[in-house]
Amino acid sequence: xxxxxxAALIWDKDKFMICQRPxxxxxxxxxxxxxxxxxxxxxxxxxxxRECQEELAVTLSVGDVxxxxxxxxxxxxxxxxxxxxxxAEGVPQKLEHNDMKWIFPAEIPNYNFCPADExxxxxxxxxxxx
Length: 130
Fold this sequence. Notes:
Layout: E1 2-12, E2 15-20, E3 31-32, E4 35-37, H1 44-56, E5 59-72, E6 77-89, E7 99-103, H2 118-128
Parallel strand pairs: 1-6
Antiparallel strand pairs: 1-2, 1-4, 2-3, 2-7, 5-6
């Protein structure tokens, strides 16, 4: 059973957004890209727009897929699709996350990310040259 998950790679000039998971959730306090599970009947882009409204109170403009990965956690297997995205309207607010930051690719090693994001982070560093 694979859980379909979507996430957003949101850039602001040379920095991208990362969010810290709430302490009480699985993989608590690890950093991740904003997003969440795709509900049945939803398109991935729709799911991402809905999740970002719920979690950040912003409306996204969703672009193409940056990368997708399958990762097996002890409790679930996720197929994570990361979309390039920009904020069409609104100012990001921490409605669900413990913290939120805009970081340069070179700052990635300073944060503990969810294991599913590791491959993606390597690609970001390659593509944007750290």
